[in-house]
Structures
1.
Amino acid sequence: MTSQTQRPHEADTSLERRGECEFAVSLRGVPVPGGRWSRGRQGSGGGGSRAFPERPPEPSPGSSGEAEPEQEGEPSLRLPAEGLHPIFFDKSPLLISIQSDPISTYVFVHHTGDCAQFVAYYIFRIAAYQEMIAPLPCTAIAAILFRRFLLMALTSCLVWNMIGSSAAVDSKPNILLFLADDLGIGDIGCYGNNTIRTPNIDRLAREGVKLTQHIAAASLCTPSRAAFLTGRYPIRSGMASSSRYRALQWNAGSGGLPANETTFARLLQQQGYTTGLIGKWHQGVNCDSFDDHCHHPLNHGFDYFYGMPFTLLNNCQENKPPDLDVALQAKLWLYSQIITLAVLTLTAGKLTGLISIRWKIIACFTLAGSLFFISWYSSYGFVQYWNCILMRNHDVTEQPMRIERTTSLMLKEAVSFIKRNRHGPFLLFVSFLHVHTPLFTMTKFCGKSRHGLYGDNVEEMDWMVGKILDLLDKEGLKNHTFTYFASDHGGHLEAQDGSAQLGGWNGIYKGGKGMGGWEGGIRVPGVFRWPGVLPAGTVIDEPTSLMDIYPTVVHLAGGILPQDRVIDGRNLMPLLQGRAQKSEHEFLFHYCGSYLHAVRWHQKDSGAIWKAHYVTPIFHPPGAGACYGKGICPCFGEGVTHHDPPLLFDLSRDPSEAKPLAADTKPHFGTVVRTIARAVEEHRRTLTPVPEQLSLYNVVWKPWLQPCCGTFPFCWCDKEGDSTQSM
């Protein structure tokens, strides 16, 4: 008999030989000796839910070994010669084969939703079939076994259906991924915030599964999102930096997610999904020319893209202080002023006769100073035009973007994508621009929260989530959609405007954005919902990673993970469904750029979670809990402290990392540190050298790579017009 790939909605089966004519069947964990669930001959009826006829066709008298010929459009009744006895299921027969070879003994249930109906009917009719199968070798024993134990299978099917397995276990569900930008784990209600209103994100947690140890692979946007998309630590793809530039700086840089990296969007696209990305990308655009789009979302498995190829900046909004490379810009301004002052001094000295110098030399100084100023001001002076743009697929639609209507445009695009692809399957990655500064918020949300502009922006994002979830309900897609919400990393503690806090709150956890090891920079919300498949109201306190989304959605889509590279993520479905109690992660490695700062060890036998810090940032001012004097904490150099032996914390007892364990007070200190050190060595052996995408050359602005909706440098357009509608 031809074996077939088991589908998620079919019965789980296993076969174990117990004796000459007796075999064990396990239907969802319930043993049923005497048969094997398998596929028989399928008629013209196809799949789906069907009803049994009141009475199956009876065998014609005198049939004793020859199968009856098949009628056009009707399934045949096969008699004992081949040992095939159909129980009719509309036009798809369920075959009972009890042959002399006991290994061939099997029963097929067409669909699990009809399993209970079939077993009940078979128990009712088995007496009529006993006379037909009695003459066969071994069949008397088999018939008794079937009659005795099929009631157990019926019970199993009924229980299975009661717990919802027949509700919506699609073989290929729609997949909806929400990823916030810079959101702290303490900013939403389901994680303990009772002052910022997030009813829609809270609804997801209430109707699904909430993770309390969900960890980002990096504490900054670009590397964290690269890991999310590829299921791999960013150092494996070259998206981890050894310089102070740890994220992409320009749309016109040449760095980005390499073309040889395989995203989950690419694998789902291969499985027949329509894939879309709405919102922030920040993984690069071009490599060698302004339109090669080597790093573009459409070159990484997305069928549709609408959003920012970069990220929000203060530069995107008028009258905001710039936040792109502020320290470097200050130096460049200073050097330009010095050169200007020198030229003016030389000119005045020449005119007054106080300085003897040739006009040609003054002209050379003037030309050099002008070229220096133009070289840097042509980029930093027009950040709003170069970085603050919107694209639809390969086309620039707004340059610069009109930030006051961006929220409405993003929501409109997400809604439109779902409506266009409601017949599925689809993957929609909603990559929010919220809650990154400058926190532009629509008028109807301004001043509504108790936490100023930041709280308003969080509540606006939650409203967007609610609009999209309501659309799923309206389109009847809720039960057929695997939904996920998270943040790319922790809240930005240093984001302030005077006394006003413009960054997120990371709850009890130390540190924040940019800090590679401290929990506040990497522990993020993680919420899943899939009604009927994931148990509602569940909380899981096991270490998981944003990288786990990659193998999880590939598994749900029926895809196969790449075999030519290391995948660091793990499939979360057993944990989310309660079929597994422990995370598959034993060690998680916490990088700051390309520098390993900390390692987490999940000691499964004891339940302890150890964390060793090899490097920590030096807070400024001392004891402040962040690097307020620098804007973001560094990864190396004079701004960090190296620890040997490492700082060791037991996160299961001290999640806020307030009390490092001392070697002389903790009996197992040395054992834990040595175990983690061996894991680091093994991990490093799995790393292979790759080009660094965030090198200085790759992140600097290159005018020939600048996306432009006109003829460079005349890049401005508004193709959206006033097409936004009130949402």
2.
Amino acid sequence: MGSPHPSEHPNLPSVGLKPFPVSCPQSLMESLIPSPLPFPCSHREEEPTMAMLLEPGMQNLRLGANGERCPTPSPPGSPGTPHDSCSIAPLTPSQSPRSEARSQQTASFAVVVAIDFGTTSSGYAFSFSSDPEAIHMMRKWEGGDPGVANQKTPTSLLLTPDGAFHSFGYTARDYYHDLDPEEAREWLYFEKFKMKIHSTSDLSMNTELEAVNGKKMPALEVFAHALRFFQQHAVQELRDQCPALPERDAIRWVITVPAIWKQPAKQFMREAAYRAGLVSPESPEQLLIALEPEAASIYCRKLRLHQLIDLSCKAAGTGLAPEHPIDSSFRQGDREQLRRSRHSRTFLVESGMGELWSEMQAGDRYIVADCGGGTVDLTVHQIEKPQGTLKELYKASGGPYGAVGVDLAFEQLLCHIFGADFISTFKAKRPAAWVDLTIAFEARKRAAAPTRASALNISLPFSFIDFYRKHRGQNVETALKRSNVNFVKWSSQGMLRMSPEAMSELFQPTISQIIKHIADLLKKPEVQGIKFLFLVGGFAESPMLQGAVQAAFGAACRVLVPQDVGLTILKGAVLFGLDPTIVRVRRSPLSYGVGVLNKFVEGKHPREKLLVKGGRAWCTDVFERFVAVDQSVALGEVVQRSYCPARPGQRRTIINVYCSASDDALYITDPGVRKCGTVSLELDELGRGAGARREIRASMQFGDTEIKVTAMDISTAKTVRATIDFLSN
């Protein structure tokens, strides 16, 4: 094994590291350490909850199902190390555990609250650990749109001109819409801002978001305002339902994010939750990050056949009936009636597996396509029986092909008709009227269907018509005639009259991207033999999308849409919070590792990597892989490295983490390899009489929804404060 590079850190004159395994060369900081360090002869017992991996020549081990130490051999064909002199191999897939080895996590929280933070709409749901079959949806919001009958609210945030929180959701949107046009230009209105986190390549704690009026604000503050709003609403509802509920530490929070989000974006949501006061940074386990298609998959496991719409059999119906209060005192005879009811805010799920799942065989495979407002996320899962766990078969994939793509196509149509300069000016000068126009389009977008024969009328706000006449000196009807746009006419009632063909053209680019991505995924060797394709997410309510997916893939697999499809992820996120061990194996989206020094081998290593130190030849910048891209990683598996601080009194150690989208990178300077984060180890001061040599054992977990790191000082058996940061690059 090689030695990690010393990191450059402004507060550290020299951050030196020396790994422990005896076969490894010494680091550049060797001059600070008198002699090579031997392997420690004995090892202190680890905490029974920490699983570890043992490889030849390294101080790593795995705990068996009963806590015993047991070697875990590498299965055939597992990726090897890119250099012979390093004795630590990458993490390898574990064997499937025996069914009795898995037990549902003991609930340490009285209630789980999940927040589905969407691009276009958001909401929350909760379940008490004492009755995990019952999932309670949030209270019905004030306001609402025609044709939209679910229990979420628009992801719209309104701040006062001085940046203070005013309102969220329908309330924010309606208040902003009613403001005087000149006054509205001073208020900060944010919508569809979640997309910024996915599209920003250099996301950091200082990233800013632009309000509709062009003013900017720290993104962390914007997200914290939104999460704080949901926290306050959820806590108040829980207090009304259960006055005896303790205020602190009783709630486990779950926040959903797209599976294709990278680690910085996931950390950003966690930091926003800390800022909002959902949980304390000292209690990170109280907050879980759930992957949206994964949450949907977890919920689909519980469905009965009448709760699924098979697109090959019948047309889909969507929507919920009006709100009914929660009934927390279920009589057993009422539970079945409630389970079948779509009129209640309480949903009952199966205590075991749903009817569809009970028909499936062990090893059956399916795809979950989460089609949301901003992104489309694809996850491939395999069912494991009898324990009912899920195994990811291919790394999450997708892209920015959500429903907002249709909105952008509509905006481009308006630019073509009225001029891009006019639309840009109108949005800046009349922001509230622009929001009104987008609301009008949203209602008609939901009414679009491939079988529709009649035209769709979209109301143009009076301020749009008036502003265009003053700005251009002509009326909108003249502009429409001059544009020569097919299938779009002007109605005498002051509306844009769009033919079904015109609306279909707006959908086509986005839907084509989704179809292509699913088709590409189905060609992968790991994704052969798919039985089902589940369409979930808000965009999955669209008959346009449903029809296109069924036409493209209905012959290859059954295309299924859960009833109340827009709430599928939210319900699944609650189930994930109740038992985070349901997904037993995930795939690493990237290769992760560190830069090390290795013994220089003539003919193998390039000359420009040669470094001579103390009469010895070293190869610099070697990429030592912890985990490879698309590698199976079981929940609880860890990669361990043992390091020795270069100086006896050193109080802090920084390790740079690198990532790559390929698995063939050899050096951290190769194209596509970039520094993506840092691991920081805070070391306590050793007491007098302690030995100068000190082993710090760091353990990294890649099998969870977030990468996690823990560390232990072997000499004292004390936990070392270890953090991993992906936002400070």
3.
Amino acid sequence: MVEPKFVQKLALRGLELMQTVMAASSNPTFNGIKNIMFGRSSSSANGLNVVITAVVGVALAAALGGAVIYSKRSHWAHKRKRHPLSRQQWSTAFLPDGRLADGGLKVLKQVRSGGIDSSIRAEVWPFLLGVYSLNSSKEERDLERNHKREEYEQLRIQCQCLPNEEISEMISEVINCSTEAQEFGSQEADAFSHSVKDTGMTSEPIFREVDSQDEEDSKLLESSPGNSLQVKYDTSSDNESITEDDLNSNKFSDSHKNGNGKTEAFSDIESSVEDNSNLDDFSAMVKDRHQEKNTSADIEYKVDRIEWLKKTRPKALEDFSTWQRIIRLDAVRMNAEWVPYSSSQANVTEEEASRLASLVGLKNDEHLEPCQKHHAARLVAILETYALYDPEIGYCQGMSDLLSPFVALTDEDYEAFWCFVHFMHVARDNFRLDEVGIRKQLNMVARIIKAKDPHLYKHLEKLEAQDFFFVYRMVVVLFRRELTFEQTLCLWEVIWANQAAVRAGIKKSAWRKGKRRAPPSNDLLLYAIAASVLQKRNLIIEKHTGMDDILRECNSMAGHLDVWKLLDEAHDLVAALHDKI
């Protein structure tokens, strides 16, 4: 490979020589010298003109050749100016009905060659990831958006019903209370039955009166303790009924009376309304009991949902508490330097951040700034939802790194969630416990290296590193640890543009012609990983003597990779090897 400094000097010297010769040829002094040396012989003059023309041609060729070599063949070719997809290009890419012109081909080309302007990433990503079809109309996307929002909200409700550290004890308490309530109700019913028999009354009129009572009386009785004694207290009725004396008589079980001999069902209420000064206390008591009832009903609803989840998502129910604990830890430990937040998220208040953190049960977050705490809380909510959505994968460490860009650039949780779901359609195999998906990708990287550089591959075989586990991290988190936040997004966007082109059935012929133009590929990430290894081939062959050395070398790439150089070399590998692998 020609060094760039030499190329620059060659081009500059060529241009200088050309300018010198052209200036001299037009100088009168130069013509006088020419006449003295060659006289007025036309043949000699013509010969000199030919020489001058040849020198100028050589100089021009050197200048142009140097420019070509510098722009296309050197390692520094990636430094040519990139033009990301702009907002104007994006807004003019749609037809009147909201569909992308030419099936989105022009947009994909632009993203593939220059990435996306940061101001429109949240709008473009759903198209690249397949959340919305490239051929969808605005009306179709609006319907899909509403459907996705509702589905996400239902998943969040189910997450809140799943047992976790906070509600496990509450659920146990509800179950125990339900058992006790059943036993209490049975005893009370027996006592009531005996009291009716002792008074010589039949039970039918009483129950008819109970059934006919109005809704307000029913609610009052239901909200009071001992509400299984739902008897109409009406002394004005001519029908046989239980009187106040009957209620206070010893014919009822003593266990249902307080120390004053009054039934517990009404003793608290009576004591509260004996004088007007206690009306506020009585109102507060009724409100508290109403809230207690609602809380109990909410927990019972959760118990019912858990029973449903046992049948539909047993894996999620079994592992959710474990996933939740790890998610909360990873969210708090996230490296804040990786995430430049959108303006709305950067300006979030401490009150709002703490409220959201409390809702998702975030712990040990006191050291976080409001924007960081808000981001961590959103990570927890979305990762919990994904664990329920895909219980086969659930949650594994590293997934928070992949989700954080979606959360940082998207203000709506449901939009970030569905982008992440489609992103994980490809990446989910990286988190399978059997590691089959990772091994398959590592094997692909090995095949690329073997085809491109057999000498390097043989050296890796000697070091017993042909399984390529030294690039394991690059495969799992898609260069997230090796690149800066902005570089990561550029890499991912180009990868997604390739995958979107494959999904849309766009062939190689649709791209710009030329041997260096690669066809779209689902495996561009693996070609990029192979390119990063090839950049270190000389060091690996000459200096490294074992797997540990190579692993350290790969880890040292963090912060030192140029994403566009990497992508150029990856596309070159695709162009050269896609038919062979």
